[in-house]
Write a sequence for this structure.
């Protein structure tokens, strides 16, 4: 059974055309919906979602389900939702296709990175996870701009020959302002601040699976945030596991922290201070901990 996860933005053709043209066996479609921009934008997006839902059913015979992304600019929340959604589909025995062509980039990248992370963790099922993007044949923005230029020329002609100067002046001024803005700044304007920053950083997932003892270390860092040294981390881990803190145990922790660090899987980052290394989770490490439930902490330690 094929499940397609499709983000609904301001596109139609590239969310359904590839499925029809490639003659894919689409059994189920999950439409990702979220409020983007003005009320008019939201209404337009909802209209497209309704149209897509009808055409998925009529053209492909697929059942559809809506899934609401609460905040389309909150990368961490979108990643967590994607991680759970894709895993649920795989657990149900379904093949999962993730379309990242539409919606804000935060949602697209969150779903793509989550799919990548799951491919790493579920190595034997990688052939059942697909992330894809469809290139449009053309973008309408340039055609809209060209049409505005033609309207400007028409309005200028009307202004010279007819007694509609007041209306033409207003239309001409508006059109020229839009063209100036388009020519200078493209199709998007400004930079919105999200959580105190104008940059939403997107982490890169590890290419290696996480071993049981490594999981324990990651969960511990998730609980405590940061340790001043690897030795301090090892001491706390020994207390939590009820083990004796020995040189052998400390060496085991150091070895696994190295494997999880920047030169290994990238889930941990370290900052040198004096003879020690301040140790904490990296961004992808934080996402890994966030995406794995507490009951997964029952491990058979190495």
């Amino acid at each position: 059974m094929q499940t397609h996860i499709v983000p609904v933005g301001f596109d139609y053709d590239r969310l359904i055309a590839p499925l029809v043209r490639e003659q894919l066996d689409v059994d189920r479609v999950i439409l990702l919906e979220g409020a983007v921009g003005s009320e008019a934008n939201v209404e337009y997006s909802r209209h497209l979602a309704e149209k897509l839902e009808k055409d998925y059913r009529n053209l492909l015979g697929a059942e559809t389900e809506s899934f609401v992304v609460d905040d389309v600019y909150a990368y961490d929340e979108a990643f967590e939702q994607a991680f759970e959604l894709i895993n649920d589909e795989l657990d149900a025995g379904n093949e999962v296709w993730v379309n990242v062509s539409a919606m804000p980039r935060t949602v697209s990248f969150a779903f793509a990175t989550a799919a990548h992370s799951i491919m790493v963790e579920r190595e034997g099922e990688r052939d059942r996870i697909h992330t894809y993007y469809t290139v449009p044949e053309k973008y309408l923005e340039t055609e809209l701009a060209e049409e505005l230029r033609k309207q400007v020329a028409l309005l200028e002609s009307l202004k010279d020959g007819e007694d509609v100067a007041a209306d033409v002046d207003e239309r001409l001024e508006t059109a020229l302002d839009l063209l100036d803005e388009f020519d200078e700044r493209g199709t998007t304007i400004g930079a919105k601040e999200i959580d105190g920053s104008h940059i939403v950083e997107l982490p890169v997932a590890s290419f290696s699976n996480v071993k049981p003892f490594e999981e324990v270390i990651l969960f511990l860092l998730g609980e405590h945030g940061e340790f001043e040294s690897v030795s301090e981390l090892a001491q706390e881990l020994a207390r939590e596991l009820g083990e004796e803190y020995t040189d052998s145990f400390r060496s085991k922790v150091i070895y696994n922290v190295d494997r999880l660090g920047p030169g290994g899987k990238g889930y941990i980052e370290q900052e040198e201070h004096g003879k020690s290394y301040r140790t904490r989770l990296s961004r992808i490490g934080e996402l890994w901990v966030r995406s794995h439930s507490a009951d997964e902490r029952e491990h058979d330690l190495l």
